[in-house]
Amino acid sequence: MDQENQIFGIRAIIEAIEAGKDIDKVFLQKDAQGELMNELIKSLKRNNINFSYVPIEKLNRLTKKNHQGAIGTIAPITFVTLETLVETTLEQKEKPLFVVLDQLSDARNFGAIIRTAVCCGADGIIISKNGAAPVNGDTIKTSAGAVFNIPICKVDHIKDAVFYLQGSGVMTIGATEKAEKEIYDVDLNIPLAIIMGSEDRGINPSVLKIIDEKAKLPMFSNIDSLNVSVACGAFLYEIIRQRR
């Protein structure tokens, strides 16, 4: 956790939320009690802020200051709304390209995907508010600073984002080994959003049911899947190949 983006203390985090700060993640001490802690938990839930319970030893490792059982991080970037991202992009481009990350949790994979997405001219990245990888120092470092060069949007539910994209005329395609088609057999020269799943579970089944298309990469060994950032790069460069 980056010291410069760290916020600690129950009251300080509550005030940051009320001030409209983009809180990326909050760690709460297991079994912590008290009226103020309950107020913080209610505020986190009300504002859909990602939080988890951890042993006090972890909190003590994160800071030597008096954390009162609560430490959070303020995101180093400002997130955009889904409506602003999609509408603004569609006004400017005939064939936009969005990357949707469904519960991707590793900050380094997130950073690598951001870097590739920027290199490939993607117009925005959409992630979920809960369970997604944080935008932290690891993300910034792995992205080589590219995180500051592409709009990132947080949504309550990936399904709602898929429905909104579809309603805006954007085709949604999911990367999954369960697909019958290979990515090379799908027309990608259209308004497009690619959906990448989490490292361990892939795309949520409820999301897979509603997307327009599914595609896979050919595999020539008994290893059944690639690292998600590598797979995303392969998808993005096939999109470039078809659009050139």
List keywords for this structure.
alpha/beta; 10 strands; 2 domains; 9 helices; four-stranded mixed beta sheet; 244 residues; 36% helix; 60s Ribosomal Protein L30, Chain: A; six-stranded parallel beta sheet; Alpha/beta knot; single chain
What does it look like?
There is one protein chain. The protein is an alpha/beta fold. Helices cover 36% and strands 19% of the residues. The strands form two sheets. It has a six-stranded parallel β-sheet with strand order 7-6-5-9-8-10, sandwiched between helices. Strands 1-4-2-3 form a four-stranded mixed β-sheet. Helix 1 packs parallel to helix 2 and helix 5 packs parallel to helix 9. The longest helix is centred in the C-terminal third of the chain and has 16 residues. It holds the Pfam family SpoU_sub_bind. Keywords: Methyltransferase, Transferase.
What is the beta-strand fraction? 15-25%
**Structural Rg:** 19 Å
- Model regions low in confidence, pLDDT < 50 over at least 5 residues: none
The overall pLDDT average reads: 91
General form: elongated
- The secondary-structure class comes to alpha/beta
Q: How many helical stretches?
A: 9
EC number: 2.1.1.-
Keywords: Methyltransferase, Transferase
Protein name: 23S rRNA (Guanosine(2251)-2'-O)-methyltransferase RlmB
Organism: Myroides odoratus (Flavobacterium odoratum)
